[in-house]
Amino acid sequence: MTINLKSAGLDYQQKVITIASKDPIFCKDSDTINSVVDRIVSSGHRRIPIVSRRGAIVGIITKSDILDAFLRKENFSNKISEIMTRDPILCGSNETLQYALQKFKLSRRGGFPITDGKKLIGMLSERDFVKQFLGTDIGIKVEDVMTRKPLIIQSNISVYDCLKIMVNTRYRRLPVVSDGELVGIVTSEDLLRYIYDNKYRFEDLDEPLEKVMIKDVFTVQKADDISVAIKIMETKGIGGLLVVAADKKLEGIITERDILEKIENI
After folding, report:
1. Which residues contact 195 (CB under 8 A, 6 or more apart)?
2. Which among 95, 46, 65, 51 is positioned nearest to 257, based on CA atoms?
3. Domain total for the chain?
4. Which of 133, 159, 185 is the last residue of a domain?
5. In angstroms, rounded to a whole number, what is the distance separating the alpha carbons of residues 5 and 252?
6. What confidence tens digit (pLDDT) does each residue in 121-139 have?
7. How far is the C-alpha of 259 from the C-alpha of 230, rounded, in Å?
């Protein structure tokens, strides 16, 4: 089963700017890594476009990039241009939803800057697509979309070990278990916030994972319609939910990416 954009009142030939976030925040390629992290943490955004002195987009930076740089012990007083992803994939303001959807699926990226000429005018993310279905009874169960057997981590590891796993796998969220029971979750945002709050002290990575993980986990059940998952994600401002059974056994994970993959690309 697939999802048609028309069920959300959208047309595949609509311009991307109609659903994108407008007036996006950005940083300059001359800004330091420190200052960019300040911007990411304060804004809550997962990715920020980087522009040149003349305003042209020259790169993009994500929370995962920052965590990777920290693990490699980069000097955060250096310019962001040293660690940013150069030549990011862009969406022109006149591109259609159909074309943008194809870009998401082929690139596996979570978001694109939108440009009018060389000017940055918006950001388009997986969430911008998925939230269009808020309040729509989709008729597809969570179990038909979720990722089964997600990568898990044990609660007795250190923050450092968790950081290494997240950087090496590029996963944004990891369920935490103890003796086979779900006890929490750790996201890239949680790790970045911990590192930021502890002023980038590497020795604080030796602390137990409990210092970082979130114990109050938002969940859905596999028999729920994915509209239930969309509502929770949008209400809580999160990009993924753990799927649990009645006995609290972890059965999978559902993310905005999983839902986006179900949208038809006609």
Report:
1. 67, 70, 204, 205
2. 46
3. 2
4. 133
5. 26
6. 999 999 999 999 998 889 9
7. 9
Taking 70 as the pLDDT cut, the residues of the chain under it are: none
Burial of 166 (0-12, 13-18, 19+ CB in 10 A): buried
CATH number at 105 reads 3.10.580.10
Q: What is the pLDDT of residues 66-104, one digit of tens each?
A: 999 999 999 999 999 999 999 899 999 999 999 999 999
Instruction: Examine the fold and report which residue of 111, 133, 155 is the final residue of a domain before the chain moves on.
Output: 133
What are the CB-based long-range contacts (under 8 Å, 24+) for 84-88?
84/29, 84/50, 84/58, 84/59, 84/60, 85/59, 85/60, 85/61, 86/58, 86/59, 87/58, 87/59, 88/49, 88/57, 88/59, 88/60, 88/112, 88/113
